[in-house]
Each structure stands twice: as C-alpha cells, then as structure tokens.
Amino acid sequence: MSIQGVQLFIQDDHVVMDNGILQVTISKPEGIVTGVSYQGIDNLLEIRNHESDRGYWDLVWSEEGTGGTTGTSYVIKGSKFKVMVENEEQVEISFTRDWSSSLEGKHVPLNIDTRFVMLRGSSGFYSYAIYEHLKEWPGFNLPQTRIVFKLRKDKFRYMAVADNRQRRMPLPDDRSPRRSSPLAYPEAVLIVHPVESEFKGEVDDKYQYSCENKDLHVHGWICNDPPVGWWQITPSNEFRSGGPMKQNLTSHVGPINLAVSNKQMFLSAHYVGEEMVPKFQRGEPWKKVFGPVFVYVNTLIDNSDPLWLWEDAKQETKAQVQCWPYNFLASDDFPKSEQRGCVSGRLRVSDRYVSNEHISVNGAYVGLAPPGDVGSWQTESKGYQFWTKTDENGYFLINDVRAGDYNLYAWVPGYIGDYKNDTIITITSGCDIDMGELVYEPPRDGATLWEIGIPDRTAAEFYVPDPDPKYINKLYVNHPEKYRQYGLWERYSDLYPNGDLVYTVGVSDYRTDWFFAQVTRKKDDGKYEGTTWQIKFNLDNINQTGTYKLRVALATAYVAELQVRINNPKANPPLFTTGVIGHDNTITRHGIHGLYGLYSIDVKGTLLMEGENTIFLTQPMCSSALQGLMYDYIRLEAPPS
C-alpha cells in the first residue's frame, strides 16, 4: 500500500499540513500552531486555550544597556506567509516578521523567519527559526527564546524526561491558589487540595525537571486513552548556548513542552545568570538558525504498555540524530553535511605528579566554539558549538561543523581547569582538519597533600540530605538525583543549628561529612547569617620558604562571596576573597552545578604550622536563604619540587 503524499491546504486564516498520519493547523500569517490532529484526537493541543496560546515561538528581549535576565516577553507572530516547498514528498512553509525603524522601542530589532516542515510518511513535523539583526539596527539583549507547545491536560498526564525521570503528573489545576500553598518562589507550590488525592503533600516545581544539554535529546508526554505520545526531539546541540553542561527546562505541569532551550529552550540564562545573555550592539550584524527540532507523535501498534511509547521515542531520536544535519530544509542558512567540515585529533593530559608519561583520557569533553578566552564557551550564546567526547585512547572526531572560525576547548573529568587551543580553526565546506596530538597541562604546582571531592564540575559527590518530609517530590525519593528535592537549603540549619561544618582530613568522608552547598543559616528571629566552614589537617614538616597552593574549584555561586583564611578565623583582610560572585541561582533551582570557576590561592609556608592547621572558608552574604555556593573540588599542593 502506497503512503499518502503530503498535502497543503491554504485557507483564509489557517494553513493545514496533512500527510495522512497527522494534520497540523497553523494560523496564517502569524505562524501559531493551533491544532495537531492524530489517532482520532481532533486536537492534541490544549483546546481550552486561545488559539494563540497553544504552540508558538517566543522570546524575551530588552533594549541595549539594560541589565539583568528579564525583559519584554513576546510571542513571535508573522506578518507574511510563503510556501517554500510543496510536493508529495515534502511541504515547508515560512512565516516572516520583518523589522523597520518605525518599530524601534516597540519590538525586538530582528527579522524572524519561523519555518514548519512535514515529510511523507513521517509521524511528526519539524520547526526551525532564522533570526537576523542587521548592522545598522539598534542594539538589544536577548535573554531567552524557545518553542512551546501546550498539551491537553485531560489527555497528557504522564511525563518522561529520562529513563529514571518520568512519572504521572498532577494537574495544572492543582497549582491554583485554592489547591496549593506558595513556597519560596512562584514556580514552586505545595499541593494541599489536589483534584486527585495521590498528589496531596507533594511539591510541584518546573525546575525539578531541568536537564543538561548533553542529555536533553528527547522529552515529552504520554496519553493513556487513546495511547499517544508527544515528544520533542532535538538531534543536535549546535544551536544551544552554554555548552554540554548547560541546564535547561524541559517538560513540566502546564503541561508545557519546550525545545532548545526547552520548553525547547534555545537561549536562557537559567543556572548561569546575566553572563549568559547575548547582548548585541548597533553595528553588530548577526544571524542564527535555531533548530530544527522534531515534534514526534506515536501510538501503540503491537504493544499494550503505554511506556513503550517512551522507548519508541528514544529509537526515533537515534534515527533523527543519524539524519543530522538534515538535507531536506529549503533555507540556505542551514548548511547540508557536504557544506560542513570536521575536526579530529587526540587529547592527552600531562601531570608529572600523576605520571611521567602523557595520560590518555577517556570521556574528556572536546568542543569547537567561537573564539574566546579559556572556558568562555560556558557563557557563549551568539554562535554555534560542537562537542564530542574522547575515546579510551583520547581520540576525538567532531563532524558536521558549520563554516566559520572557532577555538578548540576541552575539559577532562578527574582534572581541574579548562583547556583551550590558541589556534583559530577556520572551517570551510568539506574540510577535514587533523589537530594531531594535543596536550592539556592542568593547573599544578606541587604534589597533592590532600583533596576533597572529585573534580567533575559538580557537587554531586557530596552529602545531599533527605528533604523535609513536608516537601516531597515522590519521583526523587531514593533517586540518584535527590538534590532535585525542594528546600534542601533549609536542611543545613537543621543539621548544623549552632555551629558550622568542620571537616577533618583523613578522618571525615566528603560523601557524608561535606554538605553539598555552603548556604546561610536561618536564625531564631527568621533572619539569616553567613557561615564559616573549617578544614582541619595535619602537616609533619613545613617548608617555611616555600609557597603552597590551595586549589578551590566552585561548581556554582549565587550572590555569594568566598573568603579564605589560614589558622586565623579573624584575619582581616582574608588571605583571599572572590568578591561577590554568581547569579546562577542553582540552589533554588535544584541543580547540582552552574557556572564553573577555579581559584588558585598562594599560601606562604609561614602561614602554616607543624601539626594541626585549619582553613576557614567563609561565605558572609546572608540577605536570603538561597544565597551560597557549591564546591566541586578542593586540593592543597606542596611547594614545587
């Protein structure tokens, strides 16, 4: 039996793409997805919502010179409609919104072209957008852009983000004021009078379902009757900002399902702060393609278990990844595989205190990102990034890189710091660049005297307490990501009501004795105070003329300061201070890392004593419960030998 070709029906106010498997209705000329019909369900999108609030691209923007991570929220609506491709194999349609000087101060100075694509025999549709800022236009900031779909709450109740992060979700109604109690910030509520009793006493918070870019390829929802799945598939991270560890929102009660930067989120400042916001100046031309992402719908065929829909979505994700970069898009701004290049090489580590020979590293992250400083890829948001991991011998291959200029960056789990190759790598169509053997020398002055933690850019190895029983999300009970429970910052005051953490090297165990976040302590009067942690350690012999090195790697910070003192808790000024750092908001948003930072502190031998020594780590900022920092790793090195 032949497969029906793709048909396009153009109406007065809507267009419909139909391939016999599903039908997608889009407003004309706005480009808002108003309906998706599949498997006998007239509309998978929330029919209670106005047509303009079902499936759309949106952004947040602010004028040049504005600070912060917020601005004017704007649902992107086209003013022109055009058919780019129409045949039995494929339909691609375009909705454009052009900017002119008459819109200055009213709308973001961008030309925006949102596209939708449907293929013959495909159980889904694609969407991507092209943003362009011309050189002569005013500057602006772009804190966020995303694609959003709002699904029917009477149909889609089961959500899946990963194999071990899926569950039946409460209803959006359960978040209403009459059914919930507010918590520390608007996104989190305690459900007290749910429609269904099983959710009573649970916390609902969209940040509990965030995910790192490297793991965020598919997420979505399942409807049981009839058995239907709705999935957003992101086959590449090239257009996402912030590199592989950047965290983004996914699906959550609404239900809202977004693509890059999730919901898909393409740009967001979550878990980083204002440093992540791209800021464009007058005179700065810019163009970027976000997506495509693939909206995949599926149903049960020879299986009665609705969870099979998740397994099928994962298989479809693999198939989409194999097809990347897509060769069927009509826009010249999206290069095909033969128009791209590749970079290969080998990365090894040189650390003479670990081995006299270069060390082959398995699983190191190697990436191409726009030229910048060491580690700048963490906050890079204007261009494209391409990442891979090394094999067991340190070899890497980065395929299908867009033409342009890049630096090669890397970081290696198990070692502190960042690698950057200073060579500007120019990618041209069809190029194949072999970088040869690259050697990363992580920061190191002397032998390790002691260390706390694992240098992996997260605080996941440290002690994460059980939540207050009043604030449970059942998904994360006995879960490896228990740090996603709400209110864990309050547990520090419970565990250390009168004094702060004291860690004794050689006796304490960082897995049980080092709290995952250095936060404030709540006092009896309801106010907060800063905290000072102590590291006690013994030294048998002191090199009085030498300089020791204290390495402190932070996994995140939020309006915090780290002051370091040696053997004198009242030394003023302290030996070292970071100053006030961080706007990651990771503690609030149940992450275990945000923006990575490494501090190397000189410790003169005259500050140390034979026998017991104490390092005092003070975080004095204390205007709220949510301020603080997370450590990744701490190491004391002997003077160079």
TrEMBL record:
<dbReference type="GO" id="GO:0030246">
    <property type="term" value="F:carbohydrate binding"/>
</dbReference>
<dbReference type="InterPro" id="IPR013784">
    <property type="entry name" value="Carb-bd-like_fold"/>
</dbReference>
<dbReference type="InterPro" id="IPR014718">
    <property type="entry name" value="GH-type_carb-bd"/>
</dbReference>
<protein>
    <recommendedName>
        <fullName>rhamnogalacturonan endolyase</fullName>
        <ecNumber>4.2.2.23</ecNumber>
    </recommendedName>
</protein>
<comment type="similarity">
    <text>Belongs to the polysaccharide lyase 4 family.</text>
</comment>
<dbReference type="InterPro" id="IPR029413">
    <property type="entry name" value="RG-lyase_II"/>
</dbReference>
<dbReference type="InterPro" id="IPR008979">
    <property type="entry name" value="Galactose-bd-like_sf"/>
</dbReference>
<dbReference type="InterPro" id="IPR010325">
    <property type="entry name" value="Rhamnogal_lyase"/>
</dbReference>
<dbReference type="Pfam" id="PF14686">
    <property type="entry name" value="fn3_3"/>
</dbReference>
<keyword id="KW-0732">Signal</keyword>
<dbReference type="InterPro" id="IPR051850">
    <property type="entry name" value="Polysacch_Lyase_4"/>
</dbReference>
<feature type="domain" description="Rhamnogalacturonan lyase">
    <location>
        <begin position="362"/>
        <end position="434"/>
    </location>
</feature>
<dbReference type="InterPro" id="IPR011013">
    <property type="entry name" value="Gal_mutarotase_sf_dom"/>
</dbReference>
<dbReference type="GO" id="GO:0005975">
    <property type="term" value="P:carbohydrate metabolic process"/>
</dbReference>
<dbReference type="Pfam" id="PF06045">
    <property type="entry name" value="Rhamnogal_lyase"/>
</dbReference>
<keyword id="KW-0964">Secreted</keyword>
<dbReference type="InterPro" id="IPR029411">
    <property type="entry name" value="RG-lyase_III"/>
</dbReference>
<dbReference type="Pfam" id="PF14683">
    <property type="entry name" value="CBM-like"/>
</dbReference>
<dbReference type="GO" id="GO:0005576">
    <property type="term" value="C:extracellular region"/>
</dbReference>
<keyword id="KW-0456">Lyase</keyword>
<feature type="domain" description="Rhamnogalacturonan lyase">
    <location>
        <begin position="448"/>
        <end position="636"/>
    </location>
</feature>
<dbReference type="GO" id="GO:0102210">
    <property type="term" value="F:rhamnogalacturonan endolyase activity"/>
</dbReference>
